[in-house]
């Protein structure tokens, strides 16, 4: 029996998932919990519209005893995410109880412990911000930078969904940190929890109409789906009103109930007491720009313009998602599939209709299967579409034909389109610390720059004047933030999740392990003769949840035991196909035994321009396995030129310093520069 601590002792969850309506009714009549009042106006497909105002696991059978997961009960009894979080935050204990731990996620925080430490658990909190399109105003960047030093572990983490994470915040400092973020143009509301997460959009601050429109749409969707009850401000800034001006079209779309989407008179008109069955993810982009990994989102939205570049509407994909559980084959990563096209003025209504379809029908009995991808897989896209259409009140038009997708990194210097420049910086695994953190702060503060976070854990400095370019390039390069042409192409597209020591779900290393993995992969590529400028998209996660989207990588390493990984192959450089699991339980020290034969054969047997991902898919796993099994370790490639490099002392010392910042020797750094030079000349590029 699990006791829901903090509440009256009568609140008992009998097992993880058996919650009975009769018990719930008792609580309601005792007035202990505030519930929103009204029923949905026009029930569409819900079989349980009789349960006043409550969404109950609606694709599971509507019996008296509907099974719901424990978290559903926590949400229901929380007075819209307040209770018992508020109480738990005020007591002297270093941590918070189980219910509050679930609720605080909706406020943008996770309780964690340092898994490297033995003995008594020392609780700490990770905070995640919400930054639609990755936009970070200058003031917020500086504040985050300070907070990381004063209250965190001294680093900032850029995430795969264009947000910041601060790790290591103690409970006693949570309110100070949260309120500081809120008062400095930031928010963490809804960064985690069963609701809409940060909305992705291309981070490039282009002023072109299509990009600006995609970003405005992402902002509006984020506003539409922000929790409304005020609990966040009650808890973190003592109910202070934080003025946020919403566009009238967002307010109108949220309040519209002409198709039975809303809980009328509820503090949460879209979410109700139960919020969504699970996390929910949306990305918006423009044709060709797949910087957002569009197909991995619950909803992927693509701006469609006329021949003059004037946005007219949107193509919509649904049902993407990465998370899975080892050895449970009924859980799987899945790509979004086309739902249809809608005119531009309908987008907020359509998004709401999709969210409500998932709210009403997504499973609430077993959180492993609660993501919308499982609902769509079970129903099929036709049924899903027809239910969404009822909430939308119109039919979808046919999905418009799209050009091929490309991965865009936005690294290096680019024109914004308004006379200013932006500078995309590669940040290994999004971890900003040490000299790099100091230099970034100096530049961002001095030139009053706003920044953007990319979905690849990188950073863009915006609104840079041409006259500042040289100075900024130099200051950042001295701190190890090099122009992309000086960064190993493997690093540019690689990603790893945080994993150990703070992620409670990590099975093995990811962020801490990837620097060495990439060096070893580079050594293997060198050995088999693959040229330096040819790259492979590598993504590493410490468990199968897929936070660095490893199932879209050409080479995905997914932790499946201490120092061991599954190897996933078959993603493409433009992130449009799903990889498959090639091998299980490969020990990290045995990586070369698998990679050497694969890269050797790719080098020798590929068609011109064929990426590693395309090659592995074409060859098939049986033959790849044979290559690995028969590999004798003998690489027959022409010998390399033995190049000697001479430099004067001053140059050598400068290179040595720079090399140390990149964990290389001066010789390796020099080789990288030469390789890059040769590669770009082979490609006919200007230096
Ligand atoms: Fe994630 C849980 C980190 C993007 C799928 N993710 C976690 C937690 C919070 C662990 C936990 O539940 O206690 C990790 C915190 C680690 C730490 O100490 O920082 C965590 N996820 C991250 C970040 C920081 C990884 C990164 O390297 O940047 C990303 C933060 C995104 C953000 O700013 O909102 C992050 N997580 C993702 C993505 C990628 C994406 O959204 O594009 C995915 C796969 C896409 C998807 O959702 O399907 C992802 N995270 C998960 C899952 C599996 C969800 C599922 O459907 O099964 C979990 C576990 C869960 O939810 O139960 C999870
Ligand atoms: Fe943690 Fe797993 Fe996500 Fe990595 S993939 S951050 S180990 S939940």
UniProtKB/TrEMBL annotation:
Q: Which GO terms describe its cellular component?
A: chloroplast nucleoid; sulfite reductase complex (NADPH)
Cofactor names from the entry are:
siroheme; [4Fe-4S] cluster
Instruction: Spell out the subcellular localization from the entry.
Output: Plastid, Chloroplast stroma, Chloroplast nucleoid
Please list the residue ranges annotated as the Nitrite/Sulfite reductase ferredoxin-like domain. Answer: 121-180, 414-465
Q: Identify the PROSITE patterns for this entry.
A: NIR_SIR (PS00365)
InterPro entries hit by this protein? NiRdtase/SiRdtase_haem-b_fer, Nit/Sulf_reduc_fer-like_dom_sf, NO2/SO3_Rdtase_4Fe4S_dom, NO2/SO3_Rdtase_4Fe4S_prot, NO2/SO3_Rdtase_4Fe4S_sf, NO2/SO3_Rdtase_FeS/sirohaem_BS, SiR_ferredoxin-dep
Q: Which GO terms describe its biological process?
A: sulfate assimilation
Which parts of the sequence belong to the Nitrite/sulphite reductase 4Fe-4S domain?
A: 220-396
Q: What class of enzyme is it?
A: oxidoreductase
Name the domain of life this protein comes from.
Eukaryota
An MF annotation (GO) of this entry: sulfite reductase (ferredoxin) activity
Predominant location category: plastid
Task: Give the catalysed reaction(s), semicolon-separated.
Answer: hydrogen sulfide + 6 oxidized [2Fe-2S]-[ferredoxin] + 3 H2O = sulfite + 6 reduced [2Fe-2S]-[ferredoxin] + 7 H(+)
Q: In the Enzyme Commission scheme, what number(s) does this protein have?
A: 1.8.7.1
Keywords attached to this entry? 4Fe-4S, Chloroplast, DNA-binding, Heme, Iron, Iron-sulfur, Metal-binding, Oxidoreductase, Plastid, Thioether bond, Transit peptide
PANTHER family named among the record's database cross-references:
SULFITE REDUCTASE [NADPH] SUBUNIT BETA, SULFITE REDUCTASE [NADPH] SUBUNIT BETA-RELATED
Outline what the protein does: DNA-binding protein that binds to both double-stranded and single-stranded DNA without significant sequence specificity to reversibly repress the transcriptional activity of chloroplast nucleoids by promoting DNA compaction and possibly regulate DNA replication.
Q: How does it assemble?
A: Monomer. Interacts with ferredoxin.
This chain's protein is named: assimilatory sulfite reductase (ferredoxin)
Q: Which organism is it from?
A: Platanthera zijinensis
The taxonomic lineage of its organism, from the top, reads: Eukaryota, Viridiplantae, Streptophyta, Embryophyta, Tracheophyta
């Amino acid at each position: 029996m699990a006791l829901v601590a903090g509440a009256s002792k009568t609140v008992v969850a009998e097992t993880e998932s058996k919650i009975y309506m009769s018990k719930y009714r008792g609580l309601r009549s005792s007035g202990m919990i505030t519930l929103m009042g009204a029923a949905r106006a026009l029930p569409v497909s819900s079989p349980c519209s009789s349960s006043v105002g409550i969404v109950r696991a609606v694709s599971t059978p509507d019996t008296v005893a509907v099974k719901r997961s424990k978290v559903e009960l926590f949400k229901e009894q929380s007075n819209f995410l307040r209770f018992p979080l508020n109480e738990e935050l005020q007591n002297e204990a270093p941590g918070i109880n189980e219910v509050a731990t679930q609720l605080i996620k909706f406020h943008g925080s996770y309780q964690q412990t340092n898994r490297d430490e033995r003995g008594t658990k020392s609780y700490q909190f990770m905070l995640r911000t919400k930054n639609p399109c990755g936009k970070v105003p200058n003031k917020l960047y500086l504040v985050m930078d300070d907070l990381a030093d004063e209250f965190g572990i001294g680093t900032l983490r850029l995430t795969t969904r264009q947000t910041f994470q601060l790790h290591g915040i103690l409970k006693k400092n949570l309110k100070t940190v949260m309120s500081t973020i809120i008062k400095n143009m930031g928010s963490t509301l809804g960064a985690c929890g069963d609701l809409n997460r940060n909305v992705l959009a291309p981070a490039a601050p282009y002023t072109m109409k299509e990009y600006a429109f995609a970003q405005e749409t992402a902002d509006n969707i984020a506003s539409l789906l922000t929790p409304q009850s005020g609990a966040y401000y009650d808890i973190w800034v003592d109910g202070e009103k934080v003025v946020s001006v919403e566009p009238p079209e967002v307010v109108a779309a949220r309040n519209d109930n002409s198709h039975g989407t809303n809980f009328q008179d509820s503090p949460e008109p879209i979410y109700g007491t139960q919020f969504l069955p699970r996390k929910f993810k949306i990305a918006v982009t423009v044709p060709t720009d797949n910087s957002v990994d569009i197909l991995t989102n619950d909803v992927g939205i693509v701006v469609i313009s006329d021949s003059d570049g004037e946005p007219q509407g949107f193509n919509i994909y649904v049902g993407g998602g990465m998370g899975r559980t080892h050895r449970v084959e009924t859980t799987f990563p899945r790509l979004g599939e086309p739902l249809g096209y809608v005119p531009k003025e309908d987008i907020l209504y359509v998004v709401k209709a999709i969210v409500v379809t998932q709210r009403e029908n997504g499973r609430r009995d077993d959180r492993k299967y609660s993501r919308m991808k499982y609902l769509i897989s079970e129903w099929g896209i036709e049924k899903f579409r027809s239910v969404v259409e009822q909430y939308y009140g119109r039919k979808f038009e046919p999905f418009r034909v799209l050009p091929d997708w490309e991965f865009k990194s936005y690294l290096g210097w680019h024109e914004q389109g308004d006379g200013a420049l932006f500078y995309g910086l590669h940040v290994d695994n999004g971890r900003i610390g040490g000299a790099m953190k100091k230099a970034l702060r100096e530049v961002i503060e001095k030139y009053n720059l706003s920044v953007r976070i990319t979905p690849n854990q990188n950073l863009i400095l915006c609104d840079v004047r041409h006259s500042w370019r040289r100075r900024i390039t130099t200051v950042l390069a001295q701190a190890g933030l090099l122009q992309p042409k000086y960064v190993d192409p493997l690093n540019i597209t690689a990603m790893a999740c945080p994993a150990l020591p703070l992620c409670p779900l990590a099975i093995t290393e990811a962020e801490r392990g990837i620097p060495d993995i990439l060096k070893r992969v580079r050594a293997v590529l060198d050995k088999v003769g693959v040229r330096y400028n040819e790259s492979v998209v590598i993504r590493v996660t410490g468990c199968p949840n897929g936070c660095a989207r490893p199932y879209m990588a050409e080479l995905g390493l997914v932790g499946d035991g201490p120092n061991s990984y599954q190897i996933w192959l078959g993603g493409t450089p433009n992130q449009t196909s799903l990889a498959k699991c090639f091998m299980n339980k490969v020990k990290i020290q045995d990586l070369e035994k698998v990679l050497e034969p694969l890269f050797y054969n790719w080098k020798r047997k590929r068609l011109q321009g064929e990426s590693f991902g395309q090659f592995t898919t074409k060859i098939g796993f049986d033959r790849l396995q044979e290559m690995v099994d028969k590999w004798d370790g003998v690489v027959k490639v022409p010998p390399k030129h033995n190049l000697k490099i001479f430099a004067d002392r001053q140059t050598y010392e400068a290179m040595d310093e720079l090399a140390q910042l990149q964990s290389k020797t001066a010789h390796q750094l020099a080789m990288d520069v030469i390789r890059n030079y040769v590669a770009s000349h082979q490609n006919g590029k200007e230096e």
